[in-house]
Amino acid sequence: MKLLIAGGAGFIGSRVAAAALAAGHEVTLLDALLPSVHPDGAPAIPEGAHLIRGDVCDAETMLAALDGVDAVCHQAAKVGLGIDFSDAPDYVRHNDLGTATLLAAMTQRGICRLVLASSMVVYGEGAYTSPTLGPVSPPARTAADLDAGLFEPRCPRSGQPLRPELVFEDAPLDPRNVYAATKAMQEYLSAAWARDTGGRVAALRYHNVYGPRMPKDTPYAGVASIFRSALARGEAPQVFEDGGQRRDFISVDDVAAANLAALDWTSSEVGQAGQLRAFNVGSGQVRTIGDLAKTLSAAAGGSEPVVTGRYRLGDVRHITASSQRLRDELGWAPAISFEAGMKSFAQEPLRGE
Q: Model's pTM, two decimal places?
């Protein structure tokens, strides 16, 4: 199979490329090589892959890159919470205009197989249960509550803290920041494309991905990279809120394996034409941000984390999801435990080191 990986020189895209090459696929990478992501210029790419420097928002570039391609793995995106709302136009351009341009070019080339890198952020605050109301979707946390150290989402009727639960793929989308909104729109655009063209889309809703060659020292990086960068500077990780935020941390190599399983799904009879099928991609191990900071610090021989009580208004408190659909329907299972992954990650270089 000839595979195009948009965003293929990035953190996740490059690992998907290596896995695809190992599986015997012909791999082309398309990447804009933005200085904010690649400050040192073009990175080393997996041996055997072909790199095209170009922007997914450019229609001519996309058409040329898609010549002879059988399937597309779309990893290109501006990620993270960002700095403030002034980032919004850039997020929308890279994530949504780029996806629309890619899908239009795929239509012209007659390509009907797509794996889309989505995110668990599309669920917003995820799933909760109220002792009085049962399952509820909590309102956004207020600055007044957060200033007072009241971090847990509260029942809209009783005001009591809610109990977090696992979220499943059929839950309604509830994006609560700009990045989340653009990831939800990528799914909506891809679903519309599938219905219109008879294409097949596997939307992989990643949890918190970590691993070697993550970008460092940037407000757009994930929390694992931010903590790892602090430790590399000899500083203690700064933990926001009280560190009790629940997440699911998954190795980039397990994510790469999920992408290959999803590619197989797009070519199978199970991958019905005209359909977008969402799959949560997580390790199945619920951890807290505090757990991450402590485990990574210990593995790196660094300082004890500092719980700051600070917050970002766009952050969600708890978001963990069930990945059972991915296991059952695609035969995928994570291979790297949290403890083993953190031990390795503590010693591996970040991008730019």
A: 0.93
